[in-house]
DNA sequence: AATTCGGGGCG
DNA sequence: CGCCCAGAATT
């Protein structure tokens, strides 16, 4: 296998030194792979380190509440990853005696673990010859074999799975898969690949035809839906009034300032006032706008304004609203741009002391 | 097969 | 701004 040999020779000289590569413990590999789903290595590094300090073992994580787990995850995005990881380690404790299964099909049964992650864990932690096909691998192989099919299609993925099984190292499958990651991040990058540095350049069909810049082919994504929101900032006795988002949907279970979605034809302050009244059975007075953010998600674009609010009467709060002390803002997971506002308010509060 | 899940970094 | 990133679950 000339491809595997050249790739591993390159990897032995150029592999990245990453926090989760210090050993091949299955729990650590699992955590790192989940964090790395659709997330850049540079971002994950600090999250991973803090995570391992707080949850050094599978058992330690299994005993933790979902809210605390989400707090350690906040800012990473795709919060179902954290929920699934938590229920996954609990399942391993209950069903497998605390030991992560050692083959890809069994690993893939765990929540939040798909084909890619199962292959990555099986190959890295247990030296199984399982492909781990992510965006890097799709890009590299579409160039190596000059595949002009859309890499987001399942048929293309099956084709590449076959190619990898034909070419991967059976002695070092974990290193083979990780070498592809490193090659994809340092050499065979999305724009302007550095083919002069590539250990596989002599094997690369796209390089031979000089089409590496137009591969891979993928379908363009849809434009995000635009949503206009208004949020109310209520401060009383050094505490902020916050509400918890529903248990399902975007940013599930995370906390935010009481928020309303604005329709075309209604006034911001009236809608905000009505929402806070109905949710909290409170009279409120909406003041001036303190913050304004355009926050773009992959599929949604929030245009959100934060208004200062004041109580006029009453003191009854209906679930799930809570008062959160300005000095304990880090104890709950915040929803998106609400965290930025909370942080600013917290800093102002600290300076006033 | 298409949609829904976040967030950040970079040219 | 557009692009894409160590994807998976749901519909």
UniProtKB/TrEMBL annotation:
EC number(s) for this protein? 3.2.2.31
A GO molecular-function descriptor: oxidized purine DNA binding
| Matches recorded under SUPFAM superfamilies | DNA-glycosylase, Nudix
User: Per the entry, which co-factors are needed?
Assistant: [4Fe-4S] cluster
* PROSITE patterns attached to this UniProt entry: ENDONUCLEASE_III_1, ENDONUCLEASE_III_2
**GO BP, one example?**
mismatch repair
Keywords, ordered alphabetically: 4Fe-4S, DNA damage, DNA repair, Glycosidase, Hydrolase, Iron, Iron-sulfur, Metal-binding
Q: Where is the HhH-GPD domain?
A: 35-186
State the SMART domains in the record.
Answer: ENDO3c, FES
Q: Which Pfam families match?
A: HHH (PF00633), HhH-GPD (PF00730), NUDIX_4 (PF14815)
**Reactions that this protein is recorded to catalyse:** Hydrolyzes free adenine bases from 7,8-dihydro-8-oxoguanine:adenine mismatched double-stranded DNA, leaving an apurinic site
> What is the main EC category here?
hydrolase
Family of the protein in this entry: Belongs to the Nth/MutY family.
- Record-given protein name: Adenine DNA glycosylase
Recorded source organism is bioreactor metagenome
């Amino acid at each position: 296998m000339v491809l595997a040999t050249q790739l591993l020779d390159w990897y032995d000289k150029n592999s990245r030194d990453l926090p989760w590569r210090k050993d091949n413990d299955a729990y650590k590999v699992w955590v790192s792979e989940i964090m790395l789903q659709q997330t850049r290595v540079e971002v994950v590094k600090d999250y991973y380190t803090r995570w391992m300090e707080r949850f050094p073992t599978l058992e330690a994580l299994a005993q933790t509440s979902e809210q605390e787990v989400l707090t350690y995850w906040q800012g990473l995005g795709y919060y179902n990853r954290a929920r699934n990881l938590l229920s996954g380690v609990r399942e391993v404790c209950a069903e497998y005696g605390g030991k992560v299964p050692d083959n890809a099909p069994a690993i893939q049964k765990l929540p939040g673990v798909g084909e890619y992650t199962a292959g990555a864990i099986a190959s890295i932690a247990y030296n199984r010859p399982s492909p781990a096909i992510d965006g890097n691998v799709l890009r590299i192989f579409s160039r190596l074999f000059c595949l002009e099919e859309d890499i987001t299609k399942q048929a293309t993925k099956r084709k590449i799975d076959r190619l990898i099984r034909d070419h991967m190292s059976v002695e070092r499958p974990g290193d083979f898969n990780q070498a592809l990651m490193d090659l994809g991040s340092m050499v065979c990058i999305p724009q302007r690949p550095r083919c002069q540095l590539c250990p596989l350049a002599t094997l690369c069909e796209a390089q031979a035809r000089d089409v590496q810049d137009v591969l891979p082919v993928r379908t363009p994504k849809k434009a995000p839906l635009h949503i206009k929101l208004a949020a109310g900032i209520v401060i009383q006795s050094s505490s902020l009034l916050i509400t918890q988002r529903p248990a399902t949907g975007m940013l599930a279970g995370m906390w935010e300032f009481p928020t309303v979605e604005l329709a075309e034809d209604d006034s911001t302050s009236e809608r905000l006032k009505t929402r806070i009244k109905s949710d909290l059975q409170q009279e409120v007075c909406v003041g001036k706008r303190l913050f304004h953010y355009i926050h773009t998600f992959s599929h949604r674009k929030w245009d959100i304004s934060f208004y200062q609010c004041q109580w006029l009467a009453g003191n009854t709060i209906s679930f799930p609203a809570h008062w959160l002390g300005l000095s304990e803002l880090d104890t709950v997971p915040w929803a998106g741009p609400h965290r930025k506002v909370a942080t600013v308010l917290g800093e102002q509060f600290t300076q006033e002391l």
